[in-house]
Amino acid sequence: MITKGSDSVTIFLQLIKAKADELALLGAPLDVEDLTNKILDGLGDEYKELTRAIQARDTFITFEDLHEKLLNFEASVLTTKPEPFYFPTIANPMSKNNWRPPASSNNNNHSWHPSNSQSSRYHTT
Question: Where are the domains of the chain?
Answer without folding.
Answer: 9-79
